[in-house]
Each structure stands twice: as structure tokens, then as C-alpha cells.
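Task: fold both queries, return C-alpha cells.
Query 1:
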Amino acid sequence: MGLIDELSDAVRHFRFGKLDLLDRIGEIGFHPTKGGVLITNWYDYSPENQHGDCGELAVKAYAELKKKFPGMTFGVYWGNDPYLFNQAVGCHAVLIAVGDGYVEKNSLLVDPSLKVVAPLLESGYSLDRAEPETIVRTKINNRKIPLELVGETSTFLGQSELNGILFYLELNNGRVWPNVPDSSEQLNLTTFCFPSKDDTILFPGGMPLFMKNTLPISPAPMEIRKQAPYLELAYLLEIKARECAGVKPLPL
């Protein structure tokens, strides 16, 4: 088995997305801040939790691979992949591996989220910045870290296994939805839908075209939420956010 196959096997168990929050919802808290909210225990870098967004998985893979491949050097980097997380959608975290006969120009890219392991120069990925090792180690040591949502920022929830849609959570910021009477919405759900790779239409500059929608959370009926786990997760988070804001609650 070659090195690329070994690295691929080593990250195969990671689960891309925040569905672990369905089991951890009791430890999630919303607290108002100036211009936003602080969500406690949002990020979980515990090694026993195999779920996470790209940043969480990159850090967990960093900790695991350093032990499994002691002759290699690993670093967490932020950038873009060639299809989903392009410059129009958002940045994406990966690992860069050097060692065992690989020189810098032949560094290996390891993406534990999208399960891509390839020579960096052949991967189609672009790198923007490295995450300092001190920050990576702080995340590993602290394990659970809060998230602050402010203004127009959003945070990744996950990707549907059924149709590939990307789900993001963001603040509502006082937006009034005409189809939601007496709305007390605290959060919105934003989705990105891509065509199949075989039918991809490109923006000028080569980025894949996508469809973006921002939606209210509370109108989602239970029968739909049961079929779409990220809708269910967003609904439970909306309940928590309303408790924090002291506004009209949602039924479970």
C-alpha cells in the first residue's frame, strides 16, 4: 500500500458536518454579545467525536496523523477546493503533509472532509494561509470552543448526503419574512446547491455556478425535518436562540 492509500485510510472515518450537535444540543448555549450571539461548546475537537466542519476535522486529523506517521510533518491550511468551497462560497481547511521522501514541491494535500488525498500540485486546491501550530494545539487541548456569530457572518452546518446541498446558519438580523406571520426568527438557514460535476456551468474565472437561497427556519414542518437532519438541527438551534432572546418559543 502506498503512502497516499495509507493516508486515505487514516482519514476515512471522519464524518463531515455538525450532526453531532443533535446529540450535544443540551450543552449548547446562546448568549447575547454586542451585535451578535456567542454559542458555547459549538466546536468540539475531542478525538472521540469524529464529526465536524472542515476546520474541526483538519485539527483532529492533524492530531491523529502526527501519531500514525511520525516521519512526516503536517500543517493545517485554509484555502479553496476546485468545486464546492470556491472563493464565492467560502474557505476550506485541509492538511498539507511533507516527509517520507516528499519535498515541498511534492507536498501531499489531505482533505479529511471531502476525502481527497493527492499531490498538492495535482489536486486543484489553492491555499491562502496556514493556521499557526500554536492555535491548532490550543484547540486540541481545550477541546470545546465557542462560536460567535456577528453581523452577516455564517457558520457551516453540513452537506446533504442525498443531494449535496450545503447548509449554513446565520443570524436573522431583524429580517421580516412575509410568509412567516408574527415571526420571531433569530436565525436563518442559507443553502448552496450545485449542479452535478458532469453538468457544471462555470462563472467567469472558472468557478462553478451555484444557486444560493436564504430561508426562515421555523416554518419547516416536522415530517420534512425528520427527512432532512440539517433542517432538524437548525430548528433545534432556533429553539435555543429564542430561549436566549426571550421571544416566542417554538414547539418541539
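Query 1 returned. Query 2:
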Amino acid sequence: MRSVLFDCVPHDHYCVTCVRGLSEAEVLVRLGVADQAPYPRYTAGEALERFGYDVQTVRVHREGDWIFLVEPSGNGDTFQPQILTRLSQGTEAVSALKYLDGTAMAAHAGDGELLATYVDWTFTPAGGTDPSRLNRALTDVGFFREENEDSGDWAAWEMVLVALEHEFGLTVSPDVANGPLPTVVLPHTKTPQPYRDPLRRRPTPEGWVPPAKAQSDRQTNRDDGSDAR
């Protein structure tokens, strides 16, 4: 399975948020950027060249029943709960995020409530007040299967986009999405930090150490004093 959205975002890191059934004008009001009209049109590269990575921008595109918010810098500003809940009032919104370290995340919000959030590194289904739909979407494309999670041919950061596309009917033209689009500067928001599991696997010369082994190693180091600072 191939994601169309994956061809609309940088492959090393990205954030894309989609809002159903609202006009572009209403979405921009909810983002607090309506006063920036008329909106300049930039490609992702042009937006980064104009604003850099420290100014959080969003490129806006409507296709079908959805408004697509694509972040040129991929920092995850539109993934934040306060943004998703505001965008989803009276409708629904979904978002996917990939950090440079490969961590993939997804979220689903509806009627002003964050319903579900998924973090790939936890190796567990999405949690939240109603994660059933997001978990169904993830399960249908192969998440939570050990043979996929351990496969070098199966990438969670692309499949999370496939899951959202199939479950929520997201369709987009890469030719249009990669062209110049209305671009806005978001009000200052605190950029979320990548998820860090305290028992996360870590690289060694022998390969990746599983969480339980990493925890055991830390305990051994404490016991023999080698972990002392």
C-alpha cells in the first residue's frame, strides 16, 4: 500500500493535519490567522526559504471534503491538542506527525475533544476517550503485528498516513499539494517534544537493545557503581 499524502510531505519529517467539512476561511479563523489575508502562495521550499524553520507556517489546501494543513517545517504545531480540539469543533480533524528520529504519531479529534492519540514507539494501541476508530484504521493497514513492526520493508511513518487516508477518505493531488499554496504564519505555539520512552530501545555495536534488556543493563550499572555520576 502506498500513501498519496506521503508524496506531499518531506520524507525525513512531516506534520499534516486535515479538517473535515469546513471552509478554508473558517479554518483560518480557528487558527487565528484570518488577519493575514491576502495570503501569499508558496511551495514548501519557498516557505522555508522565506520564513526559515523557527517561524511556524502552514500551507493550506482544500480537496474534496477536507482542508489539508501541511507544515513546511514539520514541527508539529497543528498536532497539538489545543489546536486539534479547536479545529474539530462541530466536525472532526485528524493529524499525523513524524519526527527526524523516526517516531510516528497520529491523532483524531471530534466535536472539540481529543478522542485518540497514537505514538508508534509505545508499541501499544492508541489511547484516549474514544480510540476505536483510530485503532481500527491502524490495525487495517498492519499496525500491532510483530512481523510488520520488525520488518525493514514496513515503515510506520508512511503507513500511518495510509491508515488515515483509508479510514477517513482523504484524497489529495500531490501535483497540487506540492505547488504554491496559501501560506500563513501561526501564532506562537509551544512545539511538542518527541516522545521518549524511558525504556526505549537503544543502539549498540551489536544492534538494538530491547527495552527490558536496556532496563536490566541500567540496574546492573547502578549495582556495580559504573553508572555513578
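Both queries returned. Flag for query 2: Residues 198-229 form one domain.
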